[in-house]
Every structure is written in C-alpha cells, then in structure tokens.
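Purpose: get a first structural picture of the assembly so the mutagenesis plan has something to point at.
Setup: two entries, given in the order below. No constraints added.
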Amino acid sequence: MAYALRHPGTEIVVVDAMQVYRHMDIGTAKPSAADRDAVPHHCLDLVDPGDDFTVADHTVAACAALDAIESRGGRALLVAGTGLYLRAITDPMELPGRWPAVREQLEQRVQLEGAAALHAELAALDPVAASRMEPGNERRIVRALEVTLGSGRQFSSFGPGLDEYRPVPFEMVGLRWQRDALSARIEARVRRMMDDGLVDEVAGLRHRPGGLSRTASQALGYREVIDLLDGRATVSETVDAIALHTRQYAVRQERWFRRDPRVTWVEVHDDPERTLLPVLERR
RNA sequence: GGUCGAGUAGCUCAGUCGGCAGAGCAUACGCCUGAAAAGCGUAGGGUCACCGGAUCGACGCCGGUCUCGACCA
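Result (structure tokens, whole complex):
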C-alpha cells in the first residue's frame, strides 16, 4: 500500500488462494475497504465460500487483470500469498485438465490399495512424474495418474516441473522476518482476529446455503474455528492451533520462495515499510 | 508431619524378564503443475531428577536426597 500510494497508476493484484472468497474477510486478513478505495485491487472476492476454487481459476482472473492494467498504462504489483498461484502467473503453466470420472475411481482405489501401490503404477506409466513425488503423497499421485490415464499423455510431459526457473518480466522481492519476531506478530494477529469476530464470521458462513466448500473450509483459522464450534476444542486451544498452523504456513511460504533464484530477499526486523520501500523504489 | 503416586527428547507420554533409549507432536531441512492457507518426506535432539550401593552389565533392583501431585493429620 505504501508503494502504491506513492506511485499513481499502481494496481494491486492479490495472489492468494483464500482472499478470493467473498465474506471470508477477518480470517483471511483481507485488505480494508479504505485500502481498496485508495488503490485498485484485483482477484479479491471472486467466488462464494460454497464454491471450490483452484489454481486455474486464479490464473485466468489474474492474467485478465494484468492485461487490463497494461492496457491502461498502469503498473501491476502482485502480492503473494500462494506460491503455486504465483508460479502459474510468472511461469505460465500448461495445466493438463481434469478427468473427474478417472479421479473418482483413483480415489476409491487409493483407499483400498494404498498410496504406494498407485505410486508403483505411476512409476510404470510415467517414471519422471513418479520420481518427483513421495510414495506416500496420495493427492499428488492421484492427480498425476488422473492426468496420465485421462489424457493418454504422461503427466510429466505437460511442463518442466517446478524446479526450472527461467528469466521472467517480473521483479521479484521476498520479505523475510526473524522467526521469533514472526511468531510474536502471528500471535498478535490471531488475537486481533478473534477480537474482531472471527468466530461469528465462521458461524455465519456455515449457515449460508452453500456453506463452506472443500477448499474454503481448509483456510487457516476457519478449519480451527469449525472445530471450536463443533465442540472439539476450547477457545484457548483454538487460538494456539491457529497461531501454530499460521507460523508453520509462513515458514512453508518462505521455503517455497527460497528455492526461486530470481527472488531478491529483504530482511525485516521491525518496520517493513522502511526496509522494503527503498528496494521497491529501485525497481 | 505421614501415606501413596509421579519425575525418561522442547511438550505429552511408552519402555515387557536387568542386555544398544522409543513414539506422537514441536523444531530444522526438503518435496509437490487443477485441494497449495492443502498434501507428503527426511533429519537433529537424552546426565532416563540427584547421590551412593549390589551386579559382568541398571531407565529398571536396594538405600538415601530433592521436586511435583493426591489423600490423611
């Protein structure tokens, strides 16, 4: 926001898997109405909480936003968020497609036969794809087999995978906090969300007609509050769980982006505006 | 003050007949192209509360000390 306000014409493109949901405002720390009035934001509030949402949906919306910004001579500032979603924009992916009937069969088989059996089958059909995922990772294995069986083409033939980093027309800057400072900020953030009414927000969403979709209900904060509402956890257990899971997620984000050699890292200690702005100004 | 129980990895706890110290979670590191705020893997980590004793050998048995908890007075 500080950068966008100083540089008229800047528009923010949100690259975040959960802020796309309407009415999920407190728990996703969605930008305020004031911020959204001051600077154009894209890719917020795209679908209802009852809808499933995936990378492909986000890529379509984000690319449309980038085209529109470019056509009016503006400059896009992408904020992530969700590592895979950002990769799909910076390194355009050929997403292979979906075969729901094939997937349904595979999901039944994985229950009966176990992930290792399907991993062996994938190794026979597409050794490269099999080598890229752990034998216990049901979801990735099912997906790779869905594509290979459904399309008749090896899953790995759809792209180089995630470990190839080509030059891109984006400047990439990463923000990194010391772990203990990060932890303290997350704890404060969780308390603030609870004070702001996160529990009521989740309770309200569950009573809407569509409820919370499979993807929406796994959002940090929402999943834990659902456990609270169903009596599986106390308030203090819920607060602790949200803080723990958020901290683990933040570290996982750091590890995801850390692999990308194109990212310039900025170490932040207390004031992100002071440390980050000068770096962005040079771009 | 007395009786009983407990003390083992950062946390919660297993540990059979005395024979190489274990799990889950946490932490660190890594993987993952239509669930990605999801999913998966690898590793590090120990004065077995402390002191002494018997034994070839003790987390385990014996004696004592400390700490915590419950109950009794």
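The longest helix of chain A spans residues 235-258.
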